[in-house]
């Protein structure tokens, strides 16, 4: 018996699954038992940590194809309003995630920062499986006219050599030293003056005054520069998310949940 109401534990062939996890598995045609276990545990972990409701979109990049990788775990309908991904350019999709070619590849999330996101409360996350130094935007957007945006670069040479840099809803660079672009990277604004940069379980806090929201969609694999992709990244992603700001406890638990998910799928870094 399969129950349709989200949040209720449902069963499929005698195995119990969370209904939201089951909805995603059905939409993405996930049949592999290891992948199903990983998805279900990810959903139940995020719910037990009270993080699930803060997510606008979760892209678990599971199933190994462009079709399975496009779905949003929070709302797995094949619609723009459900924030499913639309891939452009050269991508390689496999069991380890989605690999952009670094020259033409990006994905449009259909999430417009101005209409969907909350000022002073926002996070972006990107789980990178590739270590490479360069001016590559893993995800985000930038309004070069208003000089505001939200973008994340896991390992660049600017503004400091070998640094994880980014900003949320303002134009000031915030950065921490980083010599390896593999792992879970999170940019996290939690108030009008506090921005956090997180790599795996390490969280750094900065004073960063909020600017404004941009009337642009978030891109993954590049940044949205007033409607056009730029700073294409060659870093493979095996997870990405967009949502509200996370407390330090939530951010730490978020890493625990995501890393457990990657470990189940044997693609952790």
Can you walk through the features of this model?
The protein has 269 residues and is an alpha+beta fold. The chain has one domain: Jelly Rolls. The chain is built from five helices and 19 strands. The longest helix is centred in the last third of the chain and has 17 residues, at 248-264. Residues 1-6 have low confidence and may be disordered.
> How many individual helices?
5
Strand coverage percent = 35-45%
Q: Any idea what the radius of gyration is? A: 17 Å
Q: Judging by the overall fold, what is the CATH architecture?
A: Sandwich
Question: What's the helix-strand series?
Answer: EEHHEHEEEEHEEEEEEEEEEEEH
Mean pLDDT: 94
Alpha carbon gap, first and last residue: 37 Å
Unreliable stretches covering 5 or more consecutive residues: 1-6
- Give the overall shape: globular
Number of extended strands: 19
> Helix- and strand-based class?
alpha+beta
Largest sheet entry: 9 strands, mixed
CATH topology: Jelly Rolls
Helical content (DSSP H or I, runs of 4+): 10-25%
CATH class: Mainly Beta
Q: What is the count of structural domains?
A: 1
């Amino acid at each position: 018996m399969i129950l349709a109401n989200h949040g209720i534990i449902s069963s499929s062939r005698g195995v119990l699954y969370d209904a939201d996890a089951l909805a995603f598995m059905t939409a993405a045609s996930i049949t592999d038992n290891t992948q199903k276990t990983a998805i279900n545990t990810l959903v139940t972990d995020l719910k037990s940590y009270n993080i699930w409701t803060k997510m606008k979109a979760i892209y678990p990049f599971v199933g190994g194809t462009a079709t399975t990788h496009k779905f949003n775990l929070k709302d797995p309908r094949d619609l723009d309003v459900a924030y499913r991904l639309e891939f452009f350019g050269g991508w390689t999709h496999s069991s380890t995630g989605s690999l952009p070619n670094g020259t033409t590849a990006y994905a449009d999330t259909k999430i417009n920062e101005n209409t969907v996101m909350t000022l002073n409360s926002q996070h972006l996350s990107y789980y990178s499986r590739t270590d490479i130094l360069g001016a590559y935007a893993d995800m985000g957007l930038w309004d070069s006219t208003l000089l505001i945006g939200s973008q994340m670069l896991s390992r660049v040479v600017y503004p400091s050599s070998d640094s994880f840099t980014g900003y949320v809803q303002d134009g000031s660079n915030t950065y921490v030293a980083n010599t390896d672009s593999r792992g879970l990277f999170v940019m996290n604004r939690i108030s009008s003056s506090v921005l956090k940069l997180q790599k795996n379980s390490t969280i750094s806090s900065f004073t960063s005054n909020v600017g404004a929201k941009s009337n642009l969609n978030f891109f993954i694999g590049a940044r949205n520069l007033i409607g056009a992709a730029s700073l294409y990244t060659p870093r493979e992603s095996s997870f990405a998310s967009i949502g509200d700001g996370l407390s330090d406890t939530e951010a730490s638990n978020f890493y625990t949940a995501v890393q457990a998910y990657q470990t189940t799928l044997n693609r952790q870094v």
